[in-house]
Amino acid sequence: MSFPALRTSALRVPSRGAAAPALARSYATPSSLFSVHDANGVKVAAADQGAPTSSISVIVKAGSRYEPAPGVAHVLKNSLFKSTAKRSQIRLVRETEMLGGVLSSALSREHLILTAEFLKGDEAFFAEALGDALTQAKFSPHEYNEEVVPTVAAEYEQAIRDSTTYAFDLAHQLAFRTGLGNSLFASPHTAVDHSAVTSYAKAAFAPSNLAVLGSNVDAGKLKSLVSDFFVSGTASSSISTPSAKYFGGEVRVPSVGHSPLDQLLIAFEGASSSSAEFAVLRYLLGGESYLKWSTGASPLSKLSSADVSASAFNLAYADAGLFGISIKAPTAQVADVASKAVAELKALAKGASEEAVKQAIAKAKFAAASALETRFGQVELIGAQLAAQGEAPASVADVFAKFDKVSAESLAKAASSALASKPTTVAVGNTHALPYADALGL
Q1: Does any domain span residue 240?
Q2: Among 143, 266, 284, 373, which is disulfide-ready with 360 (CB 3.0 to 4.6 Å)?
């Protein structure tokens, strides 16, 4: 289970294609095919795999953890692909649809991502459109008031009515308070000043803050296009944030939606994205079913039923992580399922069988490899690494090698470390009946 980003499709036509089948280990892996270049300070990685469709993604270090005031990053995400010095919004819409392309934006806690998907051969137009959004956006007040603000308010309302999305956002606020704890959503109770958004964009869109990832695009051509369209001569970045610090805490809120199921999150301090143990520990606890008509064989999947779900999650960031268990069930069943789930985590802190560890490592490998075969996965994994380190991404073989070093002992140590931290618990639903953390033995 992962909730990495808030996504908005600004301009789109019906989506195309499906994920490719898994690659054998002897084949070239998607990450190893990307070559990295520098285009006037912008890191560019691209691979041409000969597919009929292509994409270009711009990964900007401008997620909610870096915003100077609450909600600025969310508003900036929705301010993109509007009028620029070169094009009106309606012209951009018409030209994009004429070419059958898709322009979209997404926001995570660490990155703002602009993506163009298109038929191979149209990369020049879409690279220019992305560059215009970065360097020549007008951020017109009338577009802000008439289009951006209503969209932001609608996304906020949708988020708080989805108990799972709302619970994960609250969990980050409790766990980290500021930085990674900043909400992904701009609240209507805290107005976002238009000038604050334009100032944030100016600082965030500096070349040193950008990374560009091209799929099925010639690397040399993409480098040239980035040099032509992405670089503003006066831009300089002032984006920074203190290192993440974990706190933990507890919050209980009534459900805003009308779901018959309540949501309970039990989270602990995890580790950064460089750690393999928590990624494997997630699959050791499990919760997902890998066979139709079966709940699965992992400890948490055995707690699931038709109207009950319990699954582990691992949200890893550049310098911190949040690890835990998500439970969604009728009010009367939440406490029992939660107690049993916590007991399973405590049992893993004492050790796990070699067979169970081997199985969890295999699941972690499959998840990593299959993610790298999708465009969204490549942006999330390869693009984020390129933005953070400015170097060629690790190959699947390198990722597998990290997982192979995980042992039953290191997993027990990771589980113990998590349990030693102050828990972060979020209850969304019937707050009169849902359990408190201390009632679960935490």
Answers
A1: no
A2: 284
- DSSP state for residue 342 in the 8-state scheme: H
160 three-class SS:
helix
Q: What is the pTM of this model?
A: 0.90
Per the listing, tokens 């050791």 go with: 284
Using the predicted structure, report yes or no on whether residue 1 has a pLDDT greater than 50.
no
Looking at the fold, whether 197 and 284 belong to one and the same domain comes out as: no
Domain-ending residue, one of 230, 265, 291: 230
pLDDT in tens, 200-247: 999 999 998 999 999 999 999 999 999 999 876 555 666 888 899 999
Verify that 329 and 255 share a domain, yes or no.
yes
Q: Do 173 and 203 reside in the same domain of the chain?
A: yes
- pLDDT tens per residue, range 147-192: 999 999 999 999 999 999 999 999 999 999 999 999 999 998 888 9
The answer, yes or no, to whether residue 10 has pLDDT greater than 70, is: no
According to DSSP, residue 108 is labeled -
At residue 399, the pLDDT reads: 87
CATH (domain of 391): 3.30.830.10
**What is the distance between the alpha carbons of residues 125 and 300, in angstroms, rounded to a whole number?**
48
Asked if residue 273 lies in contact with residue 240, where contact means CB atoms within 8 angstroms, the answer is: no
Q: Do 225 and 342 share a structural domain?
A: no
CB 225 within 8 A of CB 127: yes
| Whether residue 224 is found in the same domain as residue 253 | no
Question: Is the sign of the CA dihedral 150, 156, 159, 161 positive or negative?
Answer: negative
Residue 2 — very low, low, confident or very high, per pLDDT cuts 50/70/90? very low
Instruction: Determine the average pLDDT of the residues in 412-418.
Output: 97
Residue at a domain's end among 230, 257, 291: 230
Expressed as residue numbers, the domain containing 72 is 35-230
Q: Which residue has the tokens 């999330």?
A: 380
Asked whether residue 279 falls in the same domain as residue 423, the answer is yes
In-domain check, residue 8: no
Q: What is the pLDDT of residue 376?
A: 85
- Tokens for 43, please give them: 């890191």
The Cβ of residue 297 has, within 10 Å, a number of other Cβ atoms equal to: 13
Question: 297 or 115: whose pLDDT is higher?
Answer: 115
3-class SS at 408? helix
In a domain, 204, yes or no: yes
Judge whether 4 lies within some domain.
no
Verify that 415 and 344 share a domain, yes or no: yes
Please compute Rg for the chain using Cα positions.
22
CB 425 within 8 A of CB 442: yes
φ/ψ (deg, to 5) at 333: -105, -10
